[in-house]
Amino acid sequence: MNREMINKEKSKRIIRKERGITLIALVITIIVLLILAGISIATLTGENGILTQADNSKTETRGAAVEEAKKLWDAEKEMAKRTGGTAKSLSDLLDELEAQKLLIGTERQDIEETGMVTIGSRTIEFENERALVTMLKKAIEDGCEGGESCTDKENHLHIGDYVEYNAIATGDTIDTKETINGEEKDKYKYESQSSANGYTTLEKQTYTVNNYGETVNWIVLGLTEDEKNILITTGSPVRKEADDPYLYLQGATGYINAEDELNNISAIYGKGDYAEGARSITVEDVNKLSKYNPETEEYGKNQLYEYKNTMTVKGDETGKYSWSNATNGYADGTFSGIHTSNGFSYIENNEVKNISPADTETEISLESTYYNYNANGKVSEKIYNKFFNTGSKYYWLASRAVNVYPYCADFDVRGVDHGSVYAYGLFISGGYEALFSCGVRPVVTLKSGVTKDNIKILAEQTEPTWQ
Ligand SMILES: [Zn+2]
Q1: How many whole angstroms from 141 Cα to the centroid of ligand 1?
Q2: Is the pTM of this model over 0.85?
């Protein structure tokens, strides 16, 4: 190469360099163009930016497609029902949607566990015919109580039906521990201390899941308020000890802690596979079964103890007590004697308080929340036998009540006893304390998407005899 050629080559390179445009210049140019076009970076990438909008609309489109597929599936099922053909199962449908990339991440799991999924602004509910919730709703809709005369054995689940639930989760044993607030505890055992249950004869009363090798039979109690979950309870109350199955609750302490202790014992049963947790059975549960509505039943109408009647009590100059201002118009009056020799005691905000007859200043307010009824004749024989006719057993309800008489007030824990929804007075206004013992009936909430493949429906079971 001679000099001339080299120079020529150099000048070519220079020209090329000048003709080229750097990336940075390009970006600046684009930004300038965008600014000129009135589009800011925020418009592109902000919350309402073009890119986000595009992403949202993609999700919305996907949601619409899933909703469409679900509607088609519903139509297919309806068609199959009418023509006697078969429709694809929920899991087949979910397989298809996943293959089409219409379901992503944990969406399938959401559908299987809760029966619904939210994609963008859409919440899509899937009715799984094998889901226990669907089956129970269907039986209620068809007015079927089960038994031999069941009109659709394949698709029904009824209140009082037996199901197979194991309160111990897969992989756990009776001795499995769990850590709560940094403290290691027995997962399947609860010790009710005498300081909580008030029964000082025993230091503690211990409950352990299935501790006596006896099968606990679980039965369907109903649906949760939002109708998304199935509630199951034990056929019989659970046992504490082989020779003494009952939980003892005594006095003001027992009354104050009754609901907590019953719920704590019950909680050890709510840790099995497919369970969301457990609590004790309550008066609301049994009222729902018997359709007893205390708000409309007018228990004790026009009496001092009328349900929800509130009155004031205070000392009286004559050494008696007076009641007055009853909300139901019950006449004012005075009382003394049998239950007030130690002053008038009562429990307010979980504390025992007392007013002496000489105290004419302090005025306390007492609301009567007591009622009782016999469920016999109010419910079907099946419901009566499963929940009310307890035979030799009695069970607590984690519900308290105050019973106001013309001369005293009882502080009660409710229970079910020989067909009756009843209440046991653990603390009486004269300061008297009483002891009662009843069984514990846990109520387990099953996860909402649970199917009959997860929790098997069983034929009639034999309930263990206690005594
Ligand atoms: Zn049925």
Answers
A1: 10
A2: no
435 CA → ligand 1 middle, Å: 42
CA of 11 relative to ligand 1 center, distance in Å:
95
| C-alpha of residue 465 to centroid of ligand 1, in Å | 28
Helix 90-99 and helix 107-114: axis angle, to 10°? 170
Judge contact between 278 and 442, C-beta under 8 A. Answer: yes
- Give dist(CA 115, CA 70) in Å, integer: 12
The alpha carbon of 457 and the centre of ligand 1 are apart by a number of angstroms equal to 12
User: Residue 121 C-alpha to ligand 1 middle, in angstroms?
Assistant: 37
Please name every residue paired with 222 in a beta bridge, in sequence order, or none if there are none: 231
* Pairwise CA distance, residues 334 & 317, whole Å: 11
Distance 373 CA to ligand 1 centre (A): 29
CA of 145 to the centre of ligand 1 (A): 6
Distance 292 CA to ligand 1 centre (A): 24
> Residue 93 Cα, ligand 1 centroid: separation in angstroms?
27
Chain position carrying tokens 């990438």: 45
Whole-number Å distance, alpha carbon 127 to ligand 1 midpoint, is: 18
Strand, coil or helix: what is 381? Answer: helix
* Cα–Cα separations (whole angstroms), residue 177 to 174, 188, 271, 333, 393: 9, 8, 12, 58, 31
Query: 295 CA to middle of ligand 1, Å?
Result: 31
Helix axes of 90-99 and 50-83: crossing angle, nearest 10 degrees: 150
Ligand 1 centre distance from Cα of residue 163 (Å): 15
Q: How far is the CA of 222 from the centre of ligand 1 (A)?
A: 14
Please report, in tens digits, the pLDDT of each residue of the chain (467 residues total): 566 666 665 555 555 555 667 888 888 888 788 777 776 666 777 777 888 888 888 999 999 999 999 999 989 988 887 888 888 888 899 999 999 999 998 999 888 877 889 999 999 988 888 899 999 999 999 999 998 899 999 999 999 999 999 999 999 999 999 998 999 999 999 999 999 999 999 999 999 997 665 678 999 999 999 999 999 999 888 888 766 789 999 999 999 999 999 999 999 999 999 999 999 999 999 999 999 999 999 999 999 999 999 999 888 877 778 888 999 999 998 877 555 556 788 999 999 998 887 788 888 899 999 999 999 999 999 999 999 987 778 999 999 999 988 778 899 999 999 999 999 999 998 788 999 999 999 999 999 889 999 999 998 888 877 66
